[in-house]
Amino acid sequence: MNRAEIVAWAEANYLDLEFTAARRWLAEEPGRKAVGFLPVYAPAEIIHAAGMLPVGIHGGGDRIDIIRGDAYYQSYICHLPRSVVELAVTGRLDFLTGALFPSTCDVIRNLSGMWKVMYPEKYSRYVDLPQDFAKGVGGDFWTHELRELVHDMGELRGSPITEDELRKGIGDWNRRRALVRKLYAKRRDEPHNVPTDELYQLLRAGEIVPFEEFMTMAQAYLDVCDKDGRRPRDNARVIVIGAFCEQPPLGLIRTIERAGCYIVDDDFLIGNRFLTREVDCSGDAVRALAETFLNHTVANPIVYERDADGKKKLVGERLRAARAEGAIFSAPSFCDPALLDRPMLQAGAAREGISFISFKYAENTGQFQQFREQAGTFSDAIKLWGNV
Amino acid sequence: MSTVVRDQSQELQKQLISGYFDSLSTANEDGKKVVYTFVPGNLTELIRAFDLLPVLPEINALQYGMRQKTGQFILDAEKAGHSEDVCTYVKADLGMIRAGNIGPTGKKLPKPDLLLLSYTGCYTFMKWFELLREEYQCPVVMLHVPYQGDGKISPAHRDYVVQQLKEKLIPALEELSGKKLDEDRLKEMLKLSAMAEDDLVAVFQSAKAKPSPIDAWFGGVYYIGPMFTAFRGTQAGVDYYKLLRAEVEERIRLGKGPITPEGDMNQERFRLVAEGPPNWTSFREFWKMFYDEGATVVASTYTKVGGTYDFGFRHDYTRPLETLAEYCGECYTNRNVPTRIDMLVKYVEEYEADGFIINSVKSCNSFSAGQLLILREVERRTGRPGAFIESDLVDPRYFSAANIKNRLESYLQMIEARRAGGHVSGLEVSP
Asked: Which residues from A are below 8 Å from B74, CB to CB?
């Protein structure tokens, strides 16, 4: 497959709010089931281990008119939940047997309860991530939560999940994580060959389509990036921070890059990269999955920062790891995790003399001129005067 | 403005709270160590068992809000880079620190020696104390209290909290205070807590009488003051609630309605249930809109944020750590949306309310996200109409008095029309 074919496949899945790929997979064999999960992090490998299809639910972005969803949310609540509700009440999520709502923020937390009221016949679960990181405390808690999830997923499919299935499922997700990391490393090293709008759509597709299909396409994309070399431009290398839950419209990502920035690290769809190491599946796989969470996650506002200076150090660390020249703080409007974190991160960036700009968006933002001007000026400033 | 009318318990409540702020202002001179923590999941007995003083930043913010001083603090915090979209309690607190950390009573507040992050029912708490850690450069203990996603506290969740108490919090408090935990003392305090809780519940349940002798929202926030701040587990707290209960029972005997800032409200025309916090910056003006119309709030959910006692929970001194863990999980905002709906339905029915009002505050997603569904569900299940008002906790920019008053009056007129057999439907109100 060539790049255009892979990108067209990714784009088609990204744009498809009917979730045709997931529905097709369900229709191929009687008894198949799909379980959705909301951002930021849910242990999707357990759904996969049960032989069910994990489906990332990211709302409708700029591709759906919110008509009924607005009746569920006040104007000062972010856009994501209203578009998730819009998808649900218009029947677009009716193929899901269940849904997981991780402890991202109070809005997604409360949506878990709303789901129970709106869809009492469907399985739904609030996934409370541990905020204590001691093995015998938060580790025991999270292991217990994961075992309950394993039990529930077994009940949902109709038979208990075996240890071998768990090991295989988690092992598959290890391969998936490794491949995603390779894609991100490739983009970091050759952003001209891995435009972020392509990578982003590929990962969005990966949250909808069956595991093997994504692995095939992602590997194919990685391969064509090696062959299909493009000329680098004199763009500024930037990291984009804050867009980990409600996703920006594709137009915003393209605008940043077209304005003269190469995005070399970001928070988009961070759940795919939330665990930074593979899970050791040789023993108790659930325990190993829990302990990997305790010790090896990305720094993200949904998890308590133990290091008193951690927030301040973070931007510099990420910037250096990505060999970036500046940071763009890009958060959804009314996003508590991103916006409450932002002053601490910005103070750290300022302390290290890192150039940054900030803006807010909604998933359905349609005007990009202001972002283009801001990102373009930022890129020019970096190129003209360096990272000052 | 007319002179505020108070009864004896209100005077005592005022003395308790202002005396407490006095003790905070001299904490450094008195050699007392200070623990900042939050109202939901506050572990007052445990903190005080070590002779440490709790400080509750939400209380400071709301008290400043009632004195109309939060507007500038919030602007200052926004100028310093904090988003206009986020919790105004946090911004008021940060603004207050920048203004010299003078408490709402005009006396300086001590810096924290420890931040006890009781992570119960509110995501913002985590960020709030991460921010305060940067301001004060002091240690934080994170106490993660699992949310009631399934509408209950499971034994595993309780055990998780107990483990954190044993392995993290108690050692941290021992180190800070230089004392070992005296479990007998803690038990004694928990006994006192349960006594005060019994009386507080009796006070709230007195609103089932007609007329209700209390306003369970506007008046209720005064009643919960000692319980939710520093007086749970103290004899002073027990004495206050005993006095309050006796006064309320006397009001029932005399057939009196609630006491308001302008005196007794004797004609009860409407009985309402309230969901969400009140607005603090225009608290009296907001309350007046109700009592001028003869509307009494007979039950409220906000008065359960620091503990839900009216469905049976009491601190149990025989299981000190377990009971503290269960208490943390029971707080209102730690309950899922279906449980919140059940509570409201129960309140509307058991307190024979004419309807219910939701004050949706911009600052607080923990309360606000889902309230429009709650509105519809409670209406559907009770057949009684709900009203939806939008304001904020302590940001005066989001309180539109004329609009809220107009809509409240329309809502009450609708209830009257319903009594006369007219059509009933919900009413949404925006500032």
From this structure: none
